């Protein structure tokens, strides 16, 4: 049974697996697997006003890895908003 998931999300590069979800690493939180940094930590720092390049430098990430983390978090937010909208219709 596979224990690591490489999620698909709009804008992801399916040929280059950047984001992974593994229940044995980081309690199964989505992360930039190469660096062990959660996508949420990256997005929260950028939402707080830090520059993408500064966050990338702090964690030793590429600009593309930061971009993928933001795309993934954006897809999660959009899905959560849609779920709330659908529940309001019931």
Please give the structural blueprint.
Blueprint (H helix, E strand, L loop, with lengths): L18 E2 L10 E2 L4 E2 H9 L4 H8 L3 H27 L1
Antiparallel strand pairs: 1-2, 2-3
Your description of this structure?
This protein is mainly α and 90 residues long. It has a single domain (19-89), classed as Arc Repressor Mutant, subunit A, CATH 1.10.10.10. Helices cover 49% and strands 7% of the residues. Strand 2 and strand 3 form a beta hairpin.
Sum this structure up briefly.
It is built from three helices and three strands; from the N terminus they run E-E-E-H-H-H.
Low-pLDDT segments? 82-90
The percent range for strand residues is 5-15%
Question: CATH superfamily, please?
Answer: Winged helix-like DNA-binding domain superfamily/Winged helix DNA-binding domain
Number of helices: 3
Oligomer: single chain
Widest sheet: strand ordering: 1-2-3
What class, by secondary structure content? mainly alpha
Count of all domains: 1
Distance between the termini: 36 Å
Note the overall shape: globular
Radius of gyration: 14 Å
Number of E-state strands: 3
The SSE order reads EEEHHH
Helix content: 40-55%
């Amino acid at each position: 049974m596979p224990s690591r998931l490489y999620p698909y999300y709009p804008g992801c590069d399916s040929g280059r697996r950047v984001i992974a979800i593994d229940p044995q690493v980081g309690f199964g939180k989505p992360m930039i697997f190469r660096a062990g940094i959660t996508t949420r930590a990256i997005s929260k720092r950028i939402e707080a006003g830090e520059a993408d390049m500064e966050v990338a430098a702090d964690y030793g990430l590429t600009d593309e890895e930061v971009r993928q983390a933001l795309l993934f978090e954006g897809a999660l937010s959009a899905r959560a908003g849609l779920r709330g909208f659908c529940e309001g219709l019931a």
